[in-house]
Automatic annotation (TrEMBL):
GO cellular component: cytosol
Main function: Catalyzes the reversible isomerization of alpha-D-glucose 1-phosphate to alpha-D-glucose 6-phosphate. The mechanism proceeds via the intermediate compound alpha-D-glucose 1,6-bisphosphate. This enzyme participates in both the breakdown and synthesis of glucose.
Cofactor: Mg(2+)
InterPro entries: A-D-PHexomutase_a/b/a-I (IPR005844), A-D-PHexomutase_a/b/a-I/II/III (IPR016055), A-D-PHexomutase_a/b/a-II (IPR005845), A-D-PHexomutase_a/b/a-III (IPR005846), A-D-PHexomutase_C_sf (IPR036900), A-D-PHexomutase_CS (IPR016066), Alpha-D-phosphohexomutase_SF (IPR005841), PGM (IPR045244)
SUPFAM superfamilies: Phosphoglucomutase, C-terminal domain, Phosphoglucomutase, first 3 domains
Subunit structure: Monomer.
Reactions this protein catalyses: alpha-D-glucose 1,6-bisphosphate + L-seryl-[protein] = O-phospho-L-seryl-[protein] + alpha-D-glucose 6-phosphate; O-phospho-L-seryl-[protein] + alpha-D-glucose 1-phosphate = alpha-D-glucose 1,6-bisphosphate + L-seryl-[protein]; alpha-D-glucose 1-phosphate = alpha-D-glucose 6-phosphate
Main enzyme class: isomerase
Gene Ontology terms for molecular function: magnesium ion binding; phosphoglucomutase activity
A biological process term (GO) from this entry: glucose metabolic process
Alpha-D-phosphohexomutase alpha/beta/alpha domain: residues covered: 17-164, 200-309, 318-419
Protein name: phosphoglucomutase (alpha-D-glucose-1,6-bisphosphate-dependent)
Organism this protein belongs to: Pisum sativum (Garden pea)
PROSITE patterns listed in its UniProt record: PGM_PMM
Length: 582
């Protein structure tokens, strides 16, 4: 059993080490500065209670992006020095964010140990590579992101830190080989276990879904399937689940080899960045080669986000969570006893609200950030939730879960087609259009203006807040832009009073609510590593069955025009068009 010693390294604080709802994200060149990562990790250890560090079991893994392996070695040496008892690492350092949550909640070590937290190494859907993004966040013993009280403590600690602890002579661990390595330090034994990245997660998925019914669908000659991991960590699960367990053809998987730079692409599963999948599904600018599959899906870098497509048909994330909720009890065994409640983030369309009202379910509208869903789930108030930014999930873990969402859709397709696998299939488009016919349609789009000057972005938001003091002026501006738009009846900054812990979250997005149920939402996003991202959400509700089949861009054109004029988007940002439209 190898021995190691502990060193106290003197350090000084860095500016801007404040973790957001998704952790700390910066360019790699920032993270590789001497002491930068170490400061944040020590600040995190110092923010936790002693029982969550000394003698604890922690998970350290991520999406495999550039700098992950070095970070794993540093965190492992620091964990040993801080009195952690054991570290669990996914083979090759790979664990999807949802799999980390599952491992914390479900995995039991050979000695009966359970994890009490994790360092997840990911910048989610942002690019990877030497000149791109890296990120780190801490998840708690419930498998969910650290609450604001902890992230605030971490930040406070980064501003005053003077030293960190590390075991410099602890050898680097071989993360490519499954097994346990034992060491002894000043406080006793310290173990590092490298384990199979997929087994625990697959076991959990098999307890939720009817894999046999999905297998019948995927092996039917009538059904075709395509899954794009965008060279993210979902590739570590795709073959094991879709091919080995469910019988899909291996050639139905594309970009499923995890790469530290995501193959030079942007691992964000939307119509702009998932180009190969979009083209294969018949939604590109040119006619696809070969037959278009019945179902397609994509994941982001850490596999917590998803995009669902039918043959030549895009399913909005807002519609997706509403449709999963509407069909969950019939199609997914895990929910057979009924849903406890449903929830969505504020910018997400109100499609889920209508389902909740129809099915008499508890409903919650929360700020953007998965921790708010986690609170509801821990209190037994929510079963299914989602956000417009391609995040969907349930109370099986405390993170959004991209592969879970794909399996949920495949379960719905399998259920709808259980009696007609030999005849004409019920398609993704059929399911969505039937949903609209039943519940009405929420026309919806999001405009992202990325890497905008931060000062200009703040000025734009301040302008929108100031306008809310005079709705007659707002309506005059809107009517000047388009006469086809309803009247604004309310404007505010969204504030959330958490029904579980009583905490209040203010300034969560600027809302303009219209008489006919339409909405304009403006938010600044903190998910990028530099500059600011302005997100504009545009929604129009249509109950008239004769009007639910319009093209989304045509139906929303008057509201888009009104939003751009109201916000003075081009005047403030210099942008004549958004970076991404979804």
């Amino acid at each position: 059993m190898a021995l190691f010693t502990v060193s106290r390294i003197q350090t000084t604080p860095f500016d801007g080490q404040k973790p957001g709802t998704s952790g700390l994200r910066k360019k790699v060149k920032v993270f590789v500065q001497p002491h930068y990562l170490e400061n944040f990790v020590q600040a995190s250890f110092n923010a936790l209670t002693e029982g969550k560090v000394r003698g604890a079991t922690l998970v350290v893994s991520g999406d495999g992006r550039y700098y992950s392996e070095q970070a794993i070695q540093i965190i492992t040496k620091m964990a040993a020095a801080n009195g952690v008892r054991r570290i669990w690492i996914g083979q090759n350092g790979l664990l999807s964010t949802p799999a980390v949550s599952a491992v914390i909640r479900e995995r039991v070590g050979v000695d009966g140990s359970k994890a009490t937290g994790s360092f997840i190494l990911t910048a989610s859907h942002n690019p990877g590579g030497p000149n791109e993004d890296f990120g780190i966040k801490y998840n708690m013993e419930n498998g969910g992101p650290a609450p604001e009280g902890i992230t605030n403590k971490i930040y406070e600690n980064t501003t005053t830190i003077k030293e960190y602890l590390i075991a410099p002579d602890l050898p680097n661990v071989d993360i490519t080989t499954v097994g346990v390595t034992n060491f002894t330090g000043p406080e006793g034994p310290f173990d590092i276990e490298v384990f199979d990245s997929a087994s625990d997660y697959i076991k959990l998925m098999k307890s939720i879904f009817d894999f046999e019914s999905i297998r019948k669908l995927l092996t039917s000659p009538k059904f075709s399937f395509c899954y794009d991991a965008l060279h993210g960590v979902a590739g570590a699960y795709a073959k094991r689940i879709f091919v080995d367990e469910l019988g899909a053809q291996e050639n139905s998987l594309i970009n499923c080899v995890p790469k530290e730079d995501f193959g030079g692409g942007h691992p964000d599963p939307n119509l702009t960045y998932a180009k190969e999948l979009v083209a294969r599904m018949g939604l590109g600018k040119s006619e696809p080669e070969g037959e278009v599959p019945e179902f397609g899906a994509a994941a982001d870098g850490d596999a917590d986000r998803n995009m669902v497509l039918g043959k030549r048909f895009f399913v909005t994330p807002s519609d997706s969570v509403a449709i999963i909720a509407a069909n969950a009890v019939e199609a997914i065994p895990y929910f057979s006893a009924g849903l406890k409640g449903v929830a969505r983030s504020m910018p997400t369309s109100a499609a889920l609200d209508v389902v909740a009202k129809h099915l008499k379910l508890k409903f919650f509208e929360v700020p953007t950030g998965w921790k708010f869903f986690g609170n509801l789930m821990d209190a037994g108030l929510c079963s299914v939730c989602g956000e417009e930014s391609f995040g969907t999930g349930s109370d099986h873990i405390r993170e959004k879960d991209g592969i879970w969402a794909v399996l949920a859709w495949l379960s719905i397709l399998a259920y709808k087609n259980k009696d007609n696998l030999e005849s004409k299939l019920v398609s993704v488009e059929d399911i969505v259009r039937q949903h609209w016919a039943t519940y009405g349609r929420h026309y919806y789009t999001r405009y992202d203006y990325e890497n905008v000057d931060a000062g200009a972005a703040k000025e734009l938001m301040a302008h929108l807040v100031k306008l809310q003091s005079s709705l007659p002026e707002v309506n005059e501006i809107i009517k000047g832009a388009s006469s086809d738009v309803s009247k604004v009846v309310h404007g505010d900054e969204f504030e959330y009073n958490d029904p579980v812990d009583g905490s209040i979250s203010s300034h969560q997005g600027i809302r303009y609510l219209f008489e006919d149920g339409s909405r304009l939402i403006f938010r600044l996003s903190g998910t990028g590593s530099e500059g600011a991202t302005i997100r504009l959400y545009i929604e129009q509700y249509e109950k008239d069955p004769s009007k639910i089949g319009r093209l989304s861009n045509e139906a929303l054109a008057p509201l888009v025009e009104a939003a751009l004029k109201l916000s003075k988007m081009e005047e403030f940002t210099g942008r004549s068009a958004p970076t991404v439209i979804t």
